[in-house]
Amino acid sequence: MNKLRVGVVGASGYSGSVSSRLIAIHPRLSLAFGTSDKLVGEPLGAHLGVRVDDGLRFVSNGSAIEHADACDAVLLCTSADVSMRLAPAFAERGKQVIDLSGAFRLEAGAYPRWYGFEHAAPAALAKAHYGLPELFGAPPKDGIVSNPGCYPTASILALAPLVRERLVEPAGLVVDAKSGVTGAGKQSGEAFSFAEYADDSHAYKLLAHQHSPEITRALSRLGADVKLTFTAHYLPIKRGLFATCYGRPRAGATAARVAECLADAYRSSGFVRAMPPDQVTIKRVVGTNACHVGATANDDVVIAVGAIDNLLKGAAGQALQNLNLMNGWDETLGLDGLQRVSP
Fold first, then answer.
1. Which residue has the higher pLDDT, 90 or 199?
2. Burial degree of 221 (CB within 10 A; 0-12, 13-18, 19+)
3. What is the pLDDT at residue 172?
């Protein structure tokens, strides 16, 4: 059986490494190349800890497009400004593109404020598919898929059915979310040292986080004019993400009804599971592509929660889920055997 050849740009970062390992063990995929400036010339297999072609060695990030002929699809685990240039270049060469950055998640006019640059590929941006399959379906077979951010994935999956069924007011939503430090990518310096992160937690990018407009835009596609406040925090753990979402109840939003709403929405989902909100925990999803959600309500407030592994359902796992669907395969292929890493 011929396997789909997949290249990974940024293969030595957290999401790139996990993506590469998932590709290497996938029954229908093979790793075509991986890029990393700091590891140029080193064997991919030794770095990834999985069996790949002995001849595969890291190539430079700058040479990525030169390797387009070696792949059928590419995962871009790069910064938004880099993905903005690379994604259209690969797509124009007929490659399936899944971008794990924020380069294709918003409208063009939002990029100067939220990402600090003018978008240089507005035509490609307008055609990109937002790859949250549980809400927006399978991506088209070709073109650019914009893989959602980790915070948006957990938040949107927890809130979307409640917004769609008009059980929560779309204005005044609040999302309080916390992630393991791998969500920041591989960074150095005092601020990211063990001594600074251990036994502590802090909020960051207050009122300025780029995931705010992403969550708002996705939820507003469900037919409501959503207004929300999003705050991100880091936890002193390596991976895992938890989002707690608050909203004002609308008519009929009882505790039983909001729980039933989530259960109905995800009953046939391969990865999203609705459960009592006090059973939604980080440790139950880390190591898997699962998202656990739950909700409750009283006369004053609706609370919905969501938990994911930020490197799997929040990044690499969801990218492979999208790639499966682009090629007409079961979305769980190569992902259903993943197991949580805590007892």
1. 90
2. middle
3. 96
DSSP state of 108: G
- Strand ranges (DSSP E) for the chain? 4-9, 29-34, 73-76, 96-99, 129-130, 144-146, 171-179, 202-204, 227-234, 241-247, 272-274, 291-297, 302-308
Provide the annotated active-site residues: 150
In angstroms, the Cα distances linking 264 to 223, 260, 273, 298, 313 are 19, 6, 10, 20, 21
Q: What residue spans define the domains of the chain?
A: 4-147+315-326, 151-308
DSSP class of 295: E
| 235 phi, psi to nearest 5 deg | -105, 155
Average pLDDT, the chain: 95
According to CATH, the topology of domain 151-308 is Dihydrodipicolinate Reductase; domain 2 (3.30.360)
Helices marked H in 100-167: 111-114, 122-127, 133-136, 150-164
Instruction: Report the pLDDT value the prediction gives residue 189, as an integer from 0 to 100.
Output: 67
In the CATH hierarchy, which fold is given to the domain comprising 4-147+315-326?
A: Rossmann fold (3.40.50)
Check: CB of residue 11 under 8 Å from CB of residue 311.
no
At residue 215, the 3 state secondary structure works out as helix
pLDDT tens sequence across 255-273: 999 999 999 999 999 999 9
How far, in Å, CA of 13 to CA of 107, rounded? 27
- In this structure, are strands 96-99 and 73-76 parallel, antiparallel, or unpaired? parallel
